[in-house]
């Protein structure tokens, strides 16, 4: 097993707002290993993008971060801003969603890529522009289009430009935040396979942030499922897809086109005042009384499979003797065919 390139330990991210404190990420712990692609899955607003930006400290000054984010032997939360600027793009790259809003509309795409080489590699203008042209060719765009501006590109081509920017300095870790959002199915797959192919070629690591469970299952090595700011399930991608252990993961799978476009009742909870107990219990078809009272911890089952659910625990914990309600409940079983208690 390879060592982790990034280790997040008990991360809490919160924001002060007029409505109260938004707890965007709570007690998040995960690792990304050398050469590994980790998929981070969840609905819009669950805290995925916040986590991605927290790693590079790209959140607003209103954000409060607690915990540890270790990149190799560096704690990114305590690193001086001067060192963070040198690390961003060079050691950890990022592909942000919505490239039309991220790219500078008054600079050509070639110049925007060349800026990275001029800052991190201290290259001259001509050499940097040559390298920018090579990156455009690498992502399937003619180097002659380096003189074109963002508005002259289609959505798929803009996404390729973002890939070129994210991978320009060959970072050890790439954060790809919804890299296929808003693209048609064919283009989406092309972009996703392009990113993964380049990452694999460089033996780099990647955090793939997406709401598309099918895409993550196809491209990622492991998957972490996030709901309302918390990790609720984590394991090998093929195991998550074939045998989900958390009701939320199962509902996500049932919503896929090939699974019948199933819907989940209700809405995600407020991150200002999340419900007591399990945060998914108000929408869960298999909830029982204890689900609204006891907040489940993220526990390891076996083989690096983690689950945050009272129903899916293997056997009864000794400490539940003080909670007789739990000991009376059958264990949840999940499979492709459905979910039941026995």
UniProtKB/TrEMBL annotation:
One GO process term, biological-process aspect: peptide transport
Record CDD domains: ABC_NikE_OppD_transporters
Class of this enzyme: translocase
DNA-binding found in the keyword field: no
Pfam family of the protein (one): ABC_tran
Lipid bilayer topology: Peripheral membrane protein
GO cellular component, one term: plasma membrane
Keyword annotations of the record: ATP-binding, Cell membrane, Ion transport, Membrane, Nucleotide-binding, Translocase, Transport
Residue ranges constituting the ABC transporter domain according to the UniProt record: 8-253
Localization of this protein: Cell membrane
Catalyzed reactions per annotation: Ni(2+)(out) + ATP + H2O = Ni(2+)(in) + ADP + phosphate + H(+)
Enzyme Commission number: 7.2.2.11
GO MF assignments: ABC-type nickel transporter activity; ATP binding; ATP hydrolysis activity
Annotated SMART domains: AAA
Subunit structure: The complex is composed of two ATP-binding proteins (NikD and NikE), two transmembrane proteins (NikB and NikC) and a solute-binding protein (NikA).
Name of the protein described by the UniProt record: Nickel import system ATP-binding protein NikD
Organism of this sequence: Methanosarcina horonobensis HB-1 = JCM 15518
């Amino acid at each position: 097993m390879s060592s982790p390139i990034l280790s997040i330990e008990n991360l809490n991210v919160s924001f002060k707002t007029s409505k109260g404190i938004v707890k965007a990420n709570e007690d998040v712990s995960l690792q990304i290993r050398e050469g590994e692609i980790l998929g981070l899955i969840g609905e819009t607003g669950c805290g995925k993008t916040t986590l991605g930006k927290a790693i590079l400290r790209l959140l607003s000054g209103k954000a409060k971060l607690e915990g540890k984010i270790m990149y190799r032997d560096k704690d990114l939360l305590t690193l001086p801003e001067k060192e963070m600027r040198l690390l961003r793009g060079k050691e950890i790259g990022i592909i942000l969603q919505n490239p039309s809003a991220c790219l500078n509309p008054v600079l050509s795409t070639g110049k925007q890529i060349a800026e990275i080489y001029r800052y991190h590699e201290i290259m001259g203008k001509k050499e940097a522009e040559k390298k920018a042209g090579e990156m455009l060719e690498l992502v399937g765009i003619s180097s002659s289009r380096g003189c074109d501006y963002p508005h002259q590109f289609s959505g798929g081509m803009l996404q390729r430009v973002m890939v070129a920017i994210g991978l320009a300095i060959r970072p050890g870790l790439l954060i790809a935040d919804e890299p296929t959002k808003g693209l048609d199915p064919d283009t989406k797959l092309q972009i996703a396979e392009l990113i993964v192919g380049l990452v694999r070629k460089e033996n780099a690591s990647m955090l793939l942030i997406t709401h598309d469970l099918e895409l993550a299952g196809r491209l990622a090595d492991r998957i972490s499922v996030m709901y309302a700011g918390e990790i609720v399930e984590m394991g090998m991608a093929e195991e998550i897809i074939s045998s989900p252990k958390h009701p939320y993961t199962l509902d996500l799978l049932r919503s896929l086109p090939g699974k019948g476009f199933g819907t989940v009742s209700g809405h995600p909870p407020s991150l200002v005042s999340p419900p007591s107990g399990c945060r998914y219990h108000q929408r869960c078809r298999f909830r029982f009384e204890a689900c609204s009272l006891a907040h489940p911890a993220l526990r390891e089952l076996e083989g690096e499979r983690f689950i945050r659910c009272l129903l899916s625990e293997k056997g009864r914990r000794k400490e539940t003797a003080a909670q007789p309600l739990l000991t009376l409940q059958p264990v949840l079983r999940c499979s492709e065919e459905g979910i039941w208690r026995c």
